[in-house]
Structures are given as structure tokens and as C-alpha cells.
Design a protein that fits this description.
The structure holds two protein chains of two kinds. Chain A is built from seven helices and two strands. By secondary structure, chain A is an all-alpha fold. By secondary structure, chain B is an all-alpha fold. In chain B, the strands form two sheets. A two-stranded antiparallel ribbon of chain B has the order 1-2. In chain B, strands 3-4 form a two-stranded antiparallel ribbon. The longest helix of chain B is centred in the first third of the chain and has 37 residues. The two termini of chain B are about 35 Å apart. The chains are: A mainly alpha, B mainly alpha.
Chain lengths: ~250, ~625
């Protein structure tokens, strides 16, 4: 029955020492890293619940069945291409999803710089860790700024607005009115992108703290940059969540 | 700190455990270490030792005592509404000093009645049977039984308790609001919970309920990641996953369930807060209230139920699985037999954990969901009977021809099995959509879940406290009082919930404040009175336990190191383990935790710390080879 790795052998008076036999880190990860993984698993369920809510409510709404071209109405779900088609500085130009695609690219780039910071940490290269953390912070902050612009645009709306049944015209959106479609579309937009944005914001705060600690040499004295790695895990997770938000909110 | 001390080899420790009498010098050495350990910590301020402690044993005691306080409050609330149900015409003016304006013209205020059932459910499910049960025993037993100095992160563990404490304060505070605490039932279904104007209890009380639960979920998360990582990374040498006591397997899987299901309740609570306070309509649509149409359109209250029960169903296993683990341990120890089907027990725990995530909609058969979907959930629900059945048969087989010691803990463990069978059988009835549609929202459901997860989990909790009290407080609880407590509680529980099945089948609806106006139900006046008398007596019987508990902390008979002649690691620590648990090196583990009455062995138990080289006479052939 000695089917385990060679290290799993034991004698009559010595305990077994295989990967899962105790006194060991079976996933080759410290408890802190494991905790981060389990936290992220938990957080994934939070986001999954929100996206499920989005799908559930979206499919409770009527589908536009014509005749003619699609037009915005509070009765059916809007087409994202027509909602998110503005770009800063390019007033009146129809650029479907261009800005949000740029935001997504920025966030994905921040993941790349995060990986480089972690890699520099493995090399114990303090200067490089600082450099790449700074880039990550910059990209993260840019993403948040872009989101702020997008929210502002979404809230202000277009000149045309939406003419309601009673003849009044609604411009933009908030939690109670929405020119782009059903109010719940705006509710969900603010809620889900807001919840994600809060995560990015916390991530940026953590990265800034991490940068300060790196600059002070805290991690260097400790002999490892595992903290950068743990916050990196969080950062990649937040990026990954954005990919899902982007897919469900903007693409499908 | 102990590097310069003579190292107690695990083998010496273990020999102390092999015979009934521990080897004297080992015990002496332990005391020596223990005393020195105490001296080290004498200058520790009481605030850090007892209040903001990072020692898992102190945190466990904090969870236990907070849970007990909550249980007394939760039980008192149930006694109050049982008064109303048992004697609907009686004058309750004598309660005015306690309840103030909630007694209205000699009657319990109807809105307050709803608040009572809501808070009773919330308190018992979350604060007592989640925090009080797994908070206590996961904290206490995981490091001790896997052989760790403490939890992975003592600091986060401390935060876990204090978030629970904060959550408790908010919930307790809400009891004293003028408009009363949350009143929409412990499941807080919208629209009742989403519209502050719906009833007094939907106002500030509901907001505080949600805030309290959000804090509670943070506490669960901090505790849960700690429990899981401790079990994965901090097991002592030799403690493979297949040598873990079943308690640890149960706590481990419970923590995973918590990590994966509570965040969904968090999402639901957050969405509900937005509906309540910021005018969104995630769960609201087409509502008239007080003759006025609300503008909320497009949301769905059924969506809330899906989100709620995605937590809510695993939650009942979060409540029951720690109890199952402790009962397995106590049954084997006190039957002096190995647990029957150790691997099947682990397998069934894993099976229950997996299934618990895919059965939630069986709470929603009457929401108008697609009947086909209903039949899928019914099918999955009934499959849970298989792992549950495996567990019950294994417990019974463990008792079979055992050399049973009827300690108080053992009685509660056997009581648990009895209640789990009785309550589980009605679960098979309710799991059928066709039958559930008839029984839904009757007392049959109330009786079912009070037996199978309420009372059972309480029995598991008592079983755990009686069994591990010596390790927690260094003293023994009084056995005679334990017997009195057991028989009063055991009889009480059946006297309360058996008749409740009967009125439930007859259609008696739950959550009704005034039922005397219905001809169909007025014939149950005597039955209700009977249930109320039994419930109130059973509640007061718990004070035998409370007295025994606090009396024994100070005056109980002093415990020995291993009073139950048990095999697991926690009994190799000093009588009152200090911070760090073992004074010397942490012992290594060589064998599974259930070597009781092993043929060929002189002693009727062999601790996990005894290597096979010392038990040649009882080794099985494959153990002799030690290649496993």
C-alpha cells in the first residue's frame, strides 16, 4: 500500500511525513495566503449573488419585440451599446463601449504591473517593487477616475433624454429615475459597479499602504515580500470580477 | 520558551495515557511546566487575558458564555409567546413591569408577538447555535485536537469574537426600541421587511437587524478562514487528514459552508438595505400599501427568498454538523468502541456539505416557482436522507455491544441521535413538494425543524459542554445535576414537539397571534396549553444546567488530565493548558483517534500519541508494517 511519495514512509516509531500528514503546508502556501484565498472565495460568492440578481431581474423584464428599430423605454432592458457610447472630450460622437473597453484595458494592465511587483519581491529587489507598485496604484486610481467620469455621465444623461408616458422628459439616471430604461437597470448599475469600485478603492488603499511599508523597508527586514503577494491576489481577484461585471453588464 | 526544558518525548506522554493511571513523573512534569507558564503570564493585564485575549481557549469561553446569555434571552422570548398561544384569553398585566407598553389592555400586543417569534428565531439560529456552538467548539477544539499552539491568526480570532459581540449589542439594543425589534420572521421576507411603513417592526428594528447581521457575517468570515487554514496548515506531525477526530472534520466542513454561504446573505442584506433606505426596488414590485400604490417596479420578493435560502439552508447544516462531530466523538469515547465507519462518517459529512448547497428551494415550494424546478429540488432534498441515514446507522452501530458509560455527555449524545431520527423522518415528509404544499407554514414544519436542528443542536451543545468542561475549566460538572438536566430536557423536548406535529397536520398555522377566532383551530386549545406548559417547564429546566455550569467553574470536583480516558490530543495537555497548549514540544501523532478496546491491548484505549512500536501486542498486520 506504499503508494505515496517516498517521503510518506514511516517506521514503527516515527510519524509519517507526507504532504498531508501534518507539520506541513499541503498547498505550499502560508496560512496568511490561504486565508486570502478563502476570503476571495467568499467574496466571489458575494459578487456571484449580485450578478445572479442582475440576471434574475433582467429576465423578469419584457423583451423588445419590435416593430422597427430598438428604442429606449422603461418597459424593456436597454442595449448597452446605446447607453455607454460616450467618450470624454468627444461630445456627440457615438463610440459604443469604447470608454469602458479602455477602462478594462487599464485595469488589466494594472494586473500585469502587479505581477511584476510580486516578481520583484521574490528577487528582493526593493526599488523594482516600489516602481511596479506605483504603476499599479496609478492604473488603479485611473480606473477609479474613469469610473467617476462614467458615473457622472450616466447621472447627467443626454440632451434628448427620455419622454415618459405623461409627456415629461427625463435626463440621466439615479436610483429613482432612468432615461436609459427601467429604473432597476440604473439601480443595478450603481449598485454593482459601485460595489466593485469600493473593492478597487480598498485595493488602492492597501497598495498605497504596501508601497509605504516597502519604502520603509518593513518587508525587506522581514526577509520576504509575501504581503505584496497577498495583496496581489486580492488585486487580481478584483480585476477578474471586473471581467465578469463587464461581460454581464456591457457585453451580453 | 521551553527549549531548555527536558523534552517530554511523545512516547513518555503517551505511556501516561496507556494505563488508567498516568505515569506520575509525566503529570508532575506537566504541572511544573504549567506553573512556570502561569508565572510568565502573571504580569499580563487582565484586560488582555480575559477581555481582548488572543488565546483560542479564552475566546471559546467568551463565545460560550455570550451564547448562553443569548440562549436565556431567546428562551425567555419563546416562553412569552407560548403564554399567548397557551392561554389566549388570560390577562397578562403581571408582565407589565417587564414588558411595559407591549402589554396592551392586559394582552400581549400583536405586533410584539411577531417581534417575539422573529427574535427568538434569529437569536437561536445565529447567536446561539451558530456563534455559541461552532464559535465555542471550533475555537476550543481545533487547535487542541490537531495539535497546534493556537489558531492560525490569534488576532483575527479575537476580532471574530468582538465583531460577534458588536453584532450582539446592536441586536440586543434593537429589543428596546420603541417600535420594537425586527418582526418579519427570522427569514425577513420582503416586502414586509423592505417597507418601513409596513408595520412598526419594519422600522428601525429591521435596520438594526440588518446591521447586526452584517457584523455577524464579518465575524463568521474571520472565524471561518481561521478554522479552515488552521486545520489545513497547523496539524501536528503525523496528523494526516485521515487521522483527524470527526469533530475536526465537522468543524472544518462547517467553516467551509459558512465561508461560502454567509456572503450570499450579506449580498441579500445589502440589497435589502438599499431597498429600505435608498429607494431601489430590487425586491419590490406592484405594491399597494394603505390604499396607496408604490412606485417600485420590476423587482422580485422571490429573488430575495432564493438569496436568503442559499444561505439559509446550508445554515441548518452549519448548526447541526458541529453537533454531529461532537456526538460521534462522545459516543465512541463512552461506548469504549471505535466509531463505526470512520471513513463513511467523513464521506457522509462531505456529502451533506455538498448537497446542502443544492436544496435551498425546498423552502420555496409554495412561492409559485416552476413545478419542474420544484421536483428537481425535491429529488436533491430527499438524497440528503442517504448520508444522514449513514450517520445514524453508524452511531447506532457504535453503541451496539459497547461498554457504555452513561456520563451526562453520553446521555445528551444518545439524546441527539434520538432527536435527529425523530426530526429527520418528518424531513422526508416535508421534502416532498406535494406534501409540503399541504404542510407549509403549519406547526408541523415548526415541530420538524425544532427537533431535527434546534433541539438536536442544543443536545450536541450540551454534550460538548459536559464532555469538554474539564478541559475548559479544569473542573468536572456535577453528574447528578447533569442527569436531572438531561431527563427534564429530553422529556420536555418530546412533550413540546410531538403534539406540535399533530396540530400541524391538522392545519394549525404558524405565526398566528390570535387563533381562537377560527372554528377549525379552537379545538386545539388544550393541546396548545399542554405544549406551552411543557415548553415553559423545559425552559426552566435549563437553569439546572446554568447553575451546574457556573457552580462547577468555581466549586466543581477537580479534573484529572484525561478524565474520560480519551485518545485525542487535547487530553495530553496539562489540566489547565496555558497559552500555547503544550508546555514542551507538541506531541506527534501515530494512529487514528478511535483505538478504543483494541484487541490485544491491555488498556481499553490507546492515545493517538502512542507509536506502534509500543503496542506490538495489539498491532494489526498492516500497522505492524506501518506502511498504511
Amino acid at each position: 500500500m506504499a503508494h505515496h511519495a517516498p517521503s510518506a514512509t514511516a517506521t514503527l516509531d516515527a510519524p509519517r511525513t507526507g504532504t498531508w500528514d501534518g507539520g506541513n503546508e499541503p498547498f505550499k502556501a502560508s496560512y496568511g495566503k490561504l486565508m486570502m484565498w478563502f476570503f476571495l472565495l467568499s467574496d466571489a460568492f458575494t459578487f456571484a449573488a449580485f450578478l445572479t440578481t442582475y440576471g434574475f431581474i433582467r429576465h423578469k423584464h419584457e423583451v423588445f419585440a419590435g416593430p422597427g428599430k430598438f428604442f429606449a423605454s422603461t418597459r424593456w432592458w436597454p442595449v448597452p451599446d446605446q447607453v455607454f457610447n460616450a467618450f470624454p472630450g468627444l461630445h456627440g460622437v457615438d463610440l459604443p463601449l469604447a470608454f469602458v473597453a479602455l477602462m478594462t484595458m487599464i485595469l488589466i494592465f494594472s494586473s500585469v504591473t502587479m505581477v511584476l511587483a510580486v516578481e520583484a519581491g521574490h528577487r528582493m529587489d526593493k526599488a523594482d517593487v516600489q516602481k511596479w507598485l506605483l504603476w499599479t496604484i496609478l492604473f488603479g486610481a485611473t480606473f477609479l477616475g474613469s469610473q467617476a467620469w462614467e458615473w457622472t455621465h450616466f447621472i447627467h444623461g443626454t440632451e434628448k433624454g427620455l419622454t415618459m408616458a405623461d409627456g415629461s422628459v427625463v435626463h440621466g439616471a439615479n436610483l429613482a429615475v432612468n432615461q436609459y430604461g427601467p429604473v432597476l437597470f440604473a439601480d443595478l448599475f450603481f449598485f454593482i459597479t459601485g460595489f466593485h469600485g469600493t473593492h478597487v478603492f480598498s485595493g488602492v488603499c492597501l497598495l498605497i499602504w504596501c508601497f509605504i511599508a516597502t519604502t520603509n523597508g518593513t518587508f525587506h527586514k522581514r526577509g520576504h515580500y509575501e504581503m505584496v503577494e497577498k495583496i496581489g491576489l486580492y488585486w487580481h481577484f478584483v480585476d477578474l470580477v471586473w471581467v465578469f461585471v463587464f461581460t454581464f453588464f456591457y457585453l451580453v | 520558551m521551553d527549549t531548555n526544558k527536558p523534552n517530554l518525548s511523545p512516547a513518555v506522554d503517551a505511556q501516561g495515557g496507556i494505563g488508567a493511571v498516568p505515569v506520575p513523573h509525566t503529570e508532575h512534569a506537566d504541572h511544573l511546566h504549567h506553573d512556570e507558564h502561569d508565572h510568565e503570564h502573571h504580569d499580563q493585564h487582565w484586560l488582555w487575558k480575559y477581555v481582548f485575549s488572543q488565546d483560542h481557549k479564552m475566546i471559546a469561553r467568551q463565545f460560550l458564555i455570550t451564547g448562553m446569555l443569548w440562549a436565556i434571552i431567546g428562551g425567555t422570548l419563546s416562553s412569552l409567546f407560548r403564554l399567548q398561544l397557551g392561554w389566549p384569553e388570560a390577562t397578562l398585566d403581571w408582565l407589565k413591569p417587564l414588558l411595559g407598553h407591549w402589554i396592551d389592555a392586559g394582552k400581549l400586543n400583536p405586533e410584539f408577538y411577531l417581534a417575539l417569534v422573529t427574535m427568538h428565531g434569529t437569536i437561536m439560529v445565529f447567536f446561539v447555535l451558530t456563534a455559541g456552538l461552532s464559535g465555542t467548539f471550533s475555537n476550543f477544539l481545533i487547535p487542541l485536537q490537531v495539535g497546534a499552539r493556537d489558531m492560525a491568526s490569534g488576532f483575527m480570532n479575537m476580532l471574530s469574537y468582538w465583531f460577534f459581540f458588536l453584532s450582539s449589542v446592536v441586536m440586543f439594543w434593537s429589543l428596546f426600541l420603541e417600535t420594537g425589534p425586527a418582526s418579519a420572521g427570522w427569514t425577513i421576507y420582503p416586502p414586509l421587511s423592505a417597507l418601513p411603513q409596513a408595520m412598526p417592526g419594519s422600522g428601525a428594528g429591521m435596520t438594526m437587524w440588518l446591521v447586526s447581521m452584517a457584523l455577524f457575517i464579518v465575524s463568521q468570515l474571520l472565524g471561518g478562514v481561521n478554522y479552515v487554514t488552521t486545520v489545513i496548515n497547523l496539524r501536528t506531525r503525523g496528523m494526516s487528514m485521515s487521522k483527524l477526530p470527526l469533530t475536526i472534520w465537522a468543524f472544518f466542513l462547517t467553516a467551509i459552508l459558512g465561508i461560502l454561504s454567509f456572503p450570499v446573505l450579506f449580498s441579500a442584506a445589502l440589497l435589502l438595505i438599499f431597498d429600505r433606505s435608498f429607494g431601489t426596488s430590487f425586491f419590490l414590485s406592484d405594491i399597494y400599501i394603505a390604499g396607496q400604490a408604490l412606485s417600485n417596479q420590476g423587482g422580485s420578493p422571490v429573488l430575495f427568498q432564493h438569496l436568503f435560502w442559499f444561505l439559509g439552508h446550508p445554515e441548518v447544516y452549519i448548526v447541526i454538523m458541529p453537533a454531529m462531530g461532537m456526538v460521534s466523538e462522545v459516543l465512541a469515547t463512552n461506548a469504549r468502541k471505535p466509531i463505526f465507519g470512520y471513513r463513511a462518517m467523513i464521506g457522509s459529512l462531505i456529502g451533506i456539505s455538498l448537497l446542502s448547497f443544492v436544496v435551498w428551494a425546498h423552502h420555496m415550494f409554495v412561492t409559485g416557482m416552476n413545478p419542474f424546478l420544484g421536483s428537481v429540488f425535491m429529488f436533491l432534498t430527499l438524497i440528503i436522507a442517504v448520508p444522514s441515514g449513514v450517520k445514524v446507522f453508524n452511531w447506532l452501530a457504535t453503541l451496539w455491544r459497547g461498554n457504555i458509560r452513561f456520563s451526562a455527555a453520553m446521555l445528551f449524545a444518545i439524546g441527539f441521535v434520538s432527536l435527529f431520527i425523530s426530526g429527520g423522518l418528518t424531513g422526508i415528509i416535508l421534502g416532498n413538494a406535494t406534501l409540503d404544499i399541504q404542510m407549509h407554514n403549519t406547526y408541523f414544519v415548526v415541530a420538524h425543524f425544532h427537533l431535527v436542528m434546534g433541539s438536536s443542536a442544543f443536545f450536541g451543545l450540551f454534550c460538548g459542554v459536559y464532555h469538554w468542561f474539564p478541559k475548559m475549566f479544569g473542573r468536572m460538572m456535577d453528574e447528578k445535576l447533569g442527569y436531572i438536566h438531561f431527563w427534564l430536557t429530553f422529556a420536555g423536548v418530546y412533550l413540546v414537539f410531538m403534539p406540535m406535529h399533530y396540530v400541524g397536520i391538522a392545519g394549525f398555522p404558524r405565526r398566528y397571534y390570535a387563533w381562537t377566532g377560527f372554528d377549525a383551530f379552537s379545538q386545539f386549545a388544550d393541546m396548545n396549553k399542554f405544549i406551552s406548559v411543557a415548553a415553559i417547564l423545559a425552559f426552566f429546566a435549563q437553569f439546572v444546567f446554568v447553575f451546574n455550569f457556573f457552580y462547577s467553574i468555581f466549586r466543581g470536583r477537580r479534573a484529572t488530565e484525561n478524565p474520560w480516558n480519551s485518545t485525542t490530543l487535547e487530553w495530553t495537555t496539562p489540566i489547565e493548558p496555558g497559552h500555547g497548549n503544550w508546555p514542551g514540544e507538541i506531541p506527534a501523532v501515530y494512529r487514528w483517534p478511535y483505538d478504543y478496546s483494541k484487541p490485544g491491548s491491555e488498556a481499553d484505549f490507546i492515545p493517538q500519541t502512542v507509536p506502534y512500536s509500543q503496542t506490538q501486542s495489539s498491532n494489526l498486520p498492516y500497522e505492524q508494517e506501518v506502511v498504511d
